[in-house]
Automatic annotation (TrEMBL):
Keyword flag Transferase: yes
Family: Belongs to the RdRP family.
Domain RDRP core per the UniProt entry, residue ranges: 4-74
Entry-linked InterPro entries: RDRP, RDRP_core
Pfam family, one: RdRP
GO terms under biological process: siRNA processing
Keywords, sorted A to Z: Nucleotidyltransferase, RNA-binding, RNA-directed RNA polymerase, RNA-mediated gene silencing, Transferase
Protein name (Swiss-Prot/TrEMBL): RNA-dependent RNA polymerase
Protein function: Probably involved in the RNA silencing pathway and required for the generation of small interfering RNAs (siRNAs).
GO cellular component: nuclear RNA-directed RNA polymerase complex
Source organism: Davidia involucrata
Record lineage: Eukaryota, Viridiplantae, Streptophyta, Embryophyta, Tracheophyta
EC number: 2.7.7.48
One Gene Ontology term of the molecular function aspect: RNA binding
Residue stretches spanning the membrane: none
Length: 120
């Protein structure tokens, strides 16, 4: 999320939305200690993404920043090494490591998939 605001705001990462998000992230990291949840207000919810973030299922815009310009310059000449367009159960299975399993993990699979999909 900070990337989206930094791309659009004139003061980039020092913009008010980015500073506010940084404070909320700090609250979120401290949640296990404090029990205080970070709540993202509506004005900080992303509505559209810069093209360089490659969100095919989201509304995007053409970024005018350096990273957006570089992205478009190399997009057509860089080899397409990944055919993954979005996170799916099939994608998850490709990178699944059974050595990472812990007892009771099955209870959390649906939640994990939903959180990952929401994050993307």
């Amino acid at each position: 999320m900070p990337t989206v605001f930094a791309d659009k705001e004139p003061s980039k990462a020092m913009s008010d939305p980015c500073i506010e998000l940084a404070k909320l992230f700090s609250v979120a990291v401290d949640f296990p200690k404090t029990g205080v949840p970070a709540e993202i207000p509506p004005h900080l919810r992303v509505k559209e993404y810069p093209d360089f973030m490659e969100k095919p299922d989201k509304t995007t815009y053409e970024s005018q920043c350096v990273i957006g310009k570089l992205f478009r310059e190399v997009k057509d000449i860089a080899p397409h090494t990944s055919s993954i367009k979005s996170f799916t159960e099939e994608v998850a299975r490709q990178s699944y490591d059974p050595d990472m399993e812990v007892d009771g993990f099955e209870d959390y699979i649906d939640d994990a998939f939903n959180y990952k999909s929401e994050y993307d």
